């Protein structure tokens, strides 16, 4: 008997078979749950009595045959309850809080849509494994819309109630300050702030034409909010802003240090920089028990890291972690970097630092 046969652990093999089946079913169900979100099926079942597939199809205005197959997948996956006696389906109240639009940032079917989006670039990512380089932003056509939905849910819940108090800038915003958001995407954060604080001026910067077009459209009523298309590694403003934010917009940059130096330059002395980045350690061994870590490293490989590499960038990756982030912020000139968090946003670290 060779050595590998001697140490072969049958229980471990059996247990891994279950793990593999769980992964396969989870992957399949994440696509179906993304469809459930997009079609509004979870929302029409929210708080409703048990109903047949025909009743649910009628309520949602969807094809019964598809709805029935989707309900079957959801029932087998333990997402929705099935009552065999009258062939009815019900969304349990205990599940609805993670699956419906009313749940805002707790609705996991929103980030789950990323699985389908990433699937669209699988072939390009496989090519990049062979040839190096990366997959550029224009290969992710629905990225800005998805990002806007995902972070918008969070901004609606956290920006005014938690983030503004965290920064201690409520009074300044009421009186009138200059605030910028770099890598602003579709501009939801600044639209919310712009309508809440009419005496302040807000400017968003992003390289994405789609993102800026959506941002301008979404804020067309607001005269104190503006958006500019620009490469954040070449920010022009010098000492023009009192507060600068970046939400999830440093780790996927091609040249993150140039962006941070630009942020530092654009702040007035004594100004505040809020850098929001995925909650992670720079060490794999610290992340390995994090229940969200497999998802984080997958999104990194298939989006955040690859878009940076596509432009000859550093490819920091989603899990660049608080240790590396703190080093970057310090090297860019920020002092007393404080790492904190906010309620309703468990997946991000909030780095608050000052320009001396
Ligand atoms: C993960 S998204 C976050 C968007 C937005 N802050 C939010 O939370 O919804 C990262 C954003 O950084 C932008 N971005 C990437 N590279 C950039 C660059 N070189 N200059 C300006 N923006 C850039 C992308 O277009 C994208 O909108």
TrEMBL record:
Q: Where is the Methyltransferase domain?
A: 175-293
Q: Which residues form the S-adenosylmethionine-dependent methyltransferase Rv2258c-like winged HTH domain?
A: 27-101
- One matching Pfam family, short form? Methyltransf_31
CDD domains linked to this entry: AdoMet_MTases
Q: Which Gene3D superfamilies match?
A: Vaccinia Virus protein VP39, Winged helix-like DNA-binding domain superfamily/Winged helix DNA-binding domain
**InterPro entries, per the entry:** Methyltranfer_dom, SAM-binding_MTase, SAM-dependent_MTases_sf, WH-like_DNA-bd_sf, WH_DNA-bd_sf, WHD_Rv2258c
Its name, as the record gives it, is Uncharacterized protein
Look up and give the organism this protein is from.
marine metagenome
